[in-house]
Design brief:
The chain is globular and about 60 Å long. It contains 14 helices and eleven strands. The protein folds into two domains: 21-262, TIM Barrel, CATH 3.20.20; 272-350. By secondary structure, the chain is of the alpha/beta class. Strands 3, 4, 5, 6, 7, 8, 9, 10 and 11 form a nine-stranded parallel β-sheet that branches. It has a two-stranded antiparallel ribbon with strand order 1-2. It starts with 20 loop residues before the first strand and ends in a 5-residue tail after the last helix. The model is unreliable at 1-16 (pLDDT under 50). Strand 10 (218-221), helix 9 (227-237) and strand 11 form a beta-alpha-beta unit. Helix content is 43%, strand content 14%. The protein has helices at 43-51, 64-68, 72-76, 96-108, 124-128, 139-152, 172-181, 204-213, 227-237, 253-262, 272-296, 306-319, 326-333, 339-350, and strands at 21-23, 26-28, 32-34, 57-58, 62-63, 87-92, 114-119, 157-164, 186-193, 218-221, 241-244.
Amino acid sequence: MFFVICQHTQPILPMNHSPPLKIADLIIDPPFMLAPMAGFTKSPFRSICLRLGCGLVFTELVTAEGILRHRPRTMHYLETLPEETPIAAHIYGNNPDSMAEAARVIESLNRFSLIDINCGCPVPKIMRRGGGAALMKDPEKIRKIVETVSKAVSLPVTVKTRIGLTPDSINISRVARAVEEGGGRAIFIHGRTANNRHNGPADWETIARIKDEVSIPVIGNGGITTAGEAVKAIKEYGVDGVMIGRAAIGNPWIFEESLSRWTDQPFTPPTDQERFEVITEHLQKLHRFMLAEARIRKRTLDKSGAATCRHFYGHLVRYLAGDPGLTKFRKEIIQTTSIDNLLKKTRLLLLNKGY
């Protein structure tokens, strides 16, 4: 296997950029964050986004009960690389005391900048356990959870939520006040209802209204597809920051471009060589991450990388989106079970235009 060494530096902000977003004493600059996404925002991808201008990343959703039981697989979700900072531990549950104890465990790891409580995940198995978006049914319980967790740790506690469960039960005003009253230091709001998941337009008007109703930072999320939209959301709706989700998959440079637009600096899109370097870095880091996970779960993982290749396909087709050779290449990568071969095929497509 060949390795490509990427030499990148963190973007340098000009002196005249806007005051940075602060969550308690944590400075998030620039105010563009990577939204947590199951299966995609693993440690390798997070580290790349941070290097390319992302202001804050989150772990995938982690169960508080699993943390309390020190389940190896659950604890692996809390593994980070040294360069992953700032990073939030993104947890779910519905018992205030259990959530607080899990937060203490997280704080003891000395690798996280804040603890984020999920009150917006619409996945049925999460909601059936009373976690995620199901908590929106009871804003008082959210207040109690935030208060109990905040008293248990010194790290800032935040909440990620939606505007409501359904269009007929939008109660984000009550939820936001509950978060603030409980001691939450910021709220991340996805501008869709839980039953709509990722369908339809996000309601940024409602997010902007909440910004006027509470004094804690409000970060908007939902429907951002370009760097221009990310910057526009802050300027037009007055939110303190923006979360970018699916638009960052295959395009971590969206953070670099958002920063450039935010600071009125020119942005140079990545060359095909730079894209290939990041793809290579991502795939190789992901393989090491999955090997470690396999050891924890006492499973055998093919060292040639078949499982890693399968997991990476969702990222790769997005990295290559728009390339005229992708249609034919897509059929071939499904059958590629070796990291070496997958990188060779990708090199052919990107650099040698072999398809």
